[in-house]
Amino acid sequence: MTMAKGEVQVRVAGWISITEKQVTLKIDGRIGPITMQAIRNFQKAYGISATGTVNAQTERQLRAIGQRNGFPEHFYAHEFKTKSGTGFSGGKVSSSEVKRNARRLAWKLEAMRKKSGGNVTWVNSAFRSIAHNSRVGGSSNSMHMYGIAADVTIKNMTVTSMVRLAKSCGFSSVIRYATHVHVDSRVEYSYGSRKWYWP
Q1: pLDDT tens digit string along 17-70?
Q2: Could you give the CA distance from residue 110 to residue 20 in angstroms, rounded to a whole number?
Q3: How far is residue 152's CA from residue 15's CA, in Å, rounded to a whole number?
Q4: 3-state secondary structure of 53
Q5: CATH fold of 75-199
Q6: Can you give the pTM of this predicted structure?
Q7: Are 142 and 175 in contact (CB under 8 A)?
Q8: The predicted structure's pLDDT at residue 53
């Protein structure tokens, strides 16, 4: 079965660039120049001839690094659930929308992990229910409450290196902290300012 074009885009979105670049991949089911570049970058990373088209080998690889639930192989759905114990519920959008958003986020993180050399990547915080966001002092319109943000740490990497990697993966907000990096995709959604934030 051929993978749907929109699903291909979800899985290669984090390969939109290999350098720090303010660009995102629109998930619209159309394989245009930006998607083709992301596919080429993905193919190079996995040792596949960089054609920019999803041939049989590329599709096999895209499927091989995915789980049955659609999340990538190194990130599990439970890592993205709120720590308040309500799963994907209690945020500012429906639980089904949060889960869809979290899955897209996870695929970008999979690309970030691969670009790091395969270093273990920890998700310290992802989706937050409104209640949990309030308890931890999050902003009133935190992107965490929509499932499009995560705070991550990568083993054996400095914060500066993590920031650089994140900026090559299509994240429109990248914020450094002492021990981790916050990433989100705010320009792709109507939830926030829709402006790039790379302080």
Answers
A1: 999 999 999 999 999 999 999 999 999 999 999 999 999 999 999 999 999 999
A2: 17
A3: 18
A4: coil
A5: Muramoyl-pentapeptide Carboxypeptidase; domain 2 (3.30.1380)
A6: 0.97
A7: no
A8: 96
> What are 136's two structure tokens?
């931890």
Amino acid code (one letter) for 150: A
**Per-residue buried b or exposed e for 69-83, using 16+ beta carbons within 10 Å of the residue's own CB:** ebbbebbebebbbbe
The 10s digit of each residue's pLDDT in 104-154 is: 999 999 999 999 999 999 999 999 999 999 999 999 999 999 999 999 999
Tokens of 64: 């091989």
Query: Whole-angstrom Cα distance, residue 171 to residue 13?
Result: 10
Q: What number of H helices and E strands is found in the chain?
A: 6, 4
**Could you tell me the residue ranges of all domains in the chain?**
1-64, 75-199
What CATH number has the domain spanning 1-64? 1.10.101.10
Instruction: Identify whether the C-beta of residue 159 lies closer than 8 Å to the C-beta of residue 178.
Output: yes
Q: What is the token pair recorded at 36?
A: 């083709």
